[in-house]
Amino acid sequence: MKKKYTPTDRIITKITGWISVLIVAALTIWGGFTLKNYYEYEQTNDAQVQEYINPVISRAGGFIVAVRFEENQEVKKGDTLLLIDNREYILQQKQTQAALQKARAELKVLESNTGTITKEAASAQAQVEANKAKVWKQELDYNRYKKLYDEESATKQRLEEVKATLEVNESNYQSSRDTYAASVSKINDIQAEKKVVQAEIARLEALLDRHKLDVSYTAITAAYDGRMGRRTVEVGQMIDAGETLAFIVNNETDKWVVANYKETQIKDMKIGDRVKIVADSYPDREFHGTIISLSPATGSSFSLLPPDNSTGNYVKIVQRIPVRIRVDGKRNEINVLKMGMNVNVYADKKHFNG
């Protein structure tokens, strides 16, 4: 019995045929574009956007009294991010300032004493010269009376008086010399004390500078223009020096892409080659970049436990070489690319040897 097709069957068959033709045509076109891309470009989807993300670290400990930023906020260089209670640091600074003032006052007293004792030494030196002249004159008198006594022209009593006067003058001369020596010794002692005080002043000045730094560390500011990331601190929290409080993305440096190309794809790549970048988040937008470096080793070589092929279980696997690509363009245009985003990178083979 001959099977009859209804008009509906014929319409369904025709529609199905046209759909099949359209699917085959679409697959053919897609395959053609794919083959064309593979022919013209060295491409990889193993690539991520990178930029510098630095931790905000406290250089002083204490209680947080103010947090002046929110997560994801744009900040400018010098903007205050956090304030730490600085009262203890200010007290330490004042204590050191007081000790420094005391040391400087002691130095002035020593300088004043040096001037006074210098004058005393000068007076003692003049007295030494005067007593020396008296001794010289008395020695002449004694020698003269000694000759007269030997010639029996002078009495023994007179000779003894002259001799006694000579001995007194000699004693005074020696005493004045000792006084002068003592004054010089005091000057040397004060000079030594001044060096000790000057060293203490230098130490206190350095300590004061350190305390001023500690006070300045209680106001944590942005080191550059950037965007704040995750924060881990709140007002009233006790923190220690060296603690990570937040993260900031640096807007002043370039964005770049690390594209992990297969080792079979990089033989003709060189620094300066231009590439095309398409982000998974923005498939309809095209970005451009420039190769700025190729890794000196495969990615696995930098891993915590690099593979050791001498262990006997060697399996050949195509390795990947990280290629660093600077993202070109205006800052406001490329800011849509965020750290860690997946992208596809297309390196034009025609430019490899051009």
Automatic annotation (TrEMBL):
Q: Which InterPro entries match?
A: AaeA-lik-b-barrel, MdtA-like_BSH, MFP
Coiled coil stretches, renumbered: 86-113, 142-214
Q: Does the keyword Transmembrane apply?
A: yes
State any GO CC term: membrane
Q: Which residues form the p-hydroxybenzoic acid efflux pump subunit AaeA-like beta-barrel domain?
A: 257-343
Q: What is its main location?
A: membrane
For this entry, list what GO says about its biological process: transmembrane transport
Instruction: Kindly list the residue ranges recorded as spanning the membrane.
Output: 12-33
> Which parts of the sequence belong to the Multidrug resistance protein MdtA-like barrel-sandwich hybrid domain?
56-249
Query: Where does this polypeptide localize?
Result: Membrane
Keyword presence, Transmembrane helix: yes
Q: What is the membrane topology here?
A: Single-pass membrane protein
Provide an example Pfam family for this protein: BSH_RND
Q: What is this protein called?
A: HlyD family secretion protein
Which organism encodes this protein? Chryseobacterium flavum
